[in-house]
Write a structure and sequence with these properties.
- The chain is an alpha/beta fold.
- The protein has one domain: TIM Barrel (Alpha-Beta Barrel), CATH 3.20.20.
- The protein is 41% helix and 15% strand.
- It contains eight helices and eight strands.
- It has an eight-stranded parallel beta sheet with strand order 7-6-5-4-3-2-1-8.
- The longest helix has 24 residues.
- The radius of gyration is 17 Å and the shape is globular.
- The chain binds pyridoxal-5'-phosphate.
- Pyridoxal-5'-phosphate binds next to strand 8.
């Protein structure tokens, strides 16, 4: 156990230091970025250890594992949902999610809004945008999103809190910078045409390989998995 805890602490501290350094470079307050620990591939004992080290923002990509872990672990954790969301799992997912990052269609948004109204919940979501043009990536195309925006903003129970994107997977994190910058600019564009109650304050962008560049471009939420659990392969 000593080993697991020591290794995790080292990984976590290293990532936190890199987040702080990126904030300094970008003249941002370190509190303006939250580290979300992506636990989708992590063993349960790794997750409990991570929580002991103070990490309270955690993310899962499957409803089943989200529900199991949210039920089992401390009630004051914030669980983020980052995976493809099937419409038949909406009810269960919104019950456990502090924030859904992967809202990728108008139909899904309307479904969540209807179920939220029935359940008297106010789920928070981020709109996933596909800026890399890769066909295998989920999310709205930019032009499509701009066109649909007035209709999306008509939801009554869902709160749209910002945007999320996944950069193309490349070795050089600098290659992701234009994508992150584009998401930030798109947020500003959409904010300008949004109704008053819609506040797009969150930009969820940056993963293990590119979170520092994402922070320099305005990320408020970075989703880090493999860098956090590196060296723990059982
Ligand atoms: C798995 C996953 C991550 C974490 O990726 P790492 O490269 O392991 O840090 C972040 N975001 C989403 C949407 C994911 O599915």
């Amino acid at each position: 156990m000593e080993d697991l805890s020591g290794r995790l602490l080292k990984n976590l501290t290293g990532i936190q230091n890199r987040i702080r350094a990126a904030c300094l470079r970008a003249h941002r307050a370190p509190e303006s970025v939250a580290l979300i620990g992506v636990t989708k591939y992590a063993r349960l004992d790794w997750v409990t250890e991570l929580i002991k080290l103070g990490c309270r923002e955690l993310a899962e990509s499957r409803t089943q594992q989200l529900a199991e872990r949210a039920e089992l672990l401390s009630p004051d954790l914030h669980w983020h949902f980052i995976g493809p969301l099937q419409r038949n799992k909406v009810r269960r997912t919104i019950q456990y999610s502090h924030l859904i990052h992967s809202l990728d269609s108008e139909k899904l948004l309307k479904t969540i809004d209807r179920i939220a109204a029935e359940s008297d919940l106010k789920p928070r979501v981020l709109i996933e945008v596909n800026l890399s043009g890769e066909a295998n990536k989920k999310g709205f195309q930019k032009a499509e999103l701009l066109q649909l925006w007035p209709s999306l903003c008509q939801v009554t129970h869902v709160q749209i809190n910002g945007l999320m994107t996944m950069a193309p997977h490349v070795d050089d994190p600098e290659a992701a910078r234009p994508v992150f910058r584009e998401l930030s600019e798109l947020r500003d564009t959409l904010q300008a045409i949004s109704p008053e109650q819609t506040r797009l304050q969150e930009l969820s962008m940056g993963m293990s390989g590119d979170f520092e560049v994402a922070i320099e471009e305005g990320a408020t939420l970075v989703r880090v998995g493999s860098a956090l659990f590196a060296g723990l392969e059982a």
